[in-house]
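Customer escalation, tier 2.

The customer says the design service returned an amino acid string that "doesn't look like it belongs to this structure." They asked us to rerun it and document both sides in this ticket. The original structure tokens are below, unchanged.
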């Protein structure tokens, strides 16, 4: 494995985080937009739901930063490159975010399945961009 400069690796990790959060947020926010369009029509969906979706994405990026930062630090430190690990960690982050964000009266199987799907997509996107080269910034020539 070639050694990647740490600044370039940090840029790759940050772009992977933003892309994974965007890809993961599209699923639940897009679902609410489609359901709002079906229930209330085009005018209401465009007027009220699109700004709500944008603020929901900003809230998702801000609230998931610290848990994801801890997970990324662990995967980089231990050079975890398995795609299943990133999918599983993405599911944990998004389902945990669902428990934090959604009131417990509304939390049902549909919400959990949507957030699980979003976590799977986010984990796959992050792995494809940054996770498949985790730990590549370290020099591993002296290790056995």
């Amino acid at each position: 494995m070639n050694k990647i400069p740490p600044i370039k690796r940090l840029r790759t990790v940050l772009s992977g985080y933003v892309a994974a959060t965007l890809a993961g947020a599209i699923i639940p926010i897009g679902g609410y937009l489609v359901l709002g369009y079906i229930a209330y029509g085009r005018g209401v969906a465009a007027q009220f739901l699109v700004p709500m979706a944008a603020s929901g994405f900003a809230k998702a990026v801000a609230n998931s930063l610290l848990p994801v930062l801890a997970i990324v630090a662990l995967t980089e430190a231990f050079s975890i490159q398995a795609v299943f690990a990133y999918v599983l960690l993405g599911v944990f982050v998004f389902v945990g975010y669902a428990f934090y964000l959604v009131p417990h009266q509304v939390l049902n199987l549909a919400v959990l399945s949507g957030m699980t799907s979003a976590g799977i997509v986010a984990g796959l996107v992050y792995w494809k961009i940054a996770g498949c080269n985790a730990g590549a910034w370290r020099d591993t020539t002296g290790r056995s």
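Tier 2 assessment: The sequence is consistent with the input. The chain has one domain: 6-133. Helices lie at 6-40, 42-63, 65-77, 83-101, 109-129. Sent an explanation to the customer and offered a walkthrough call.
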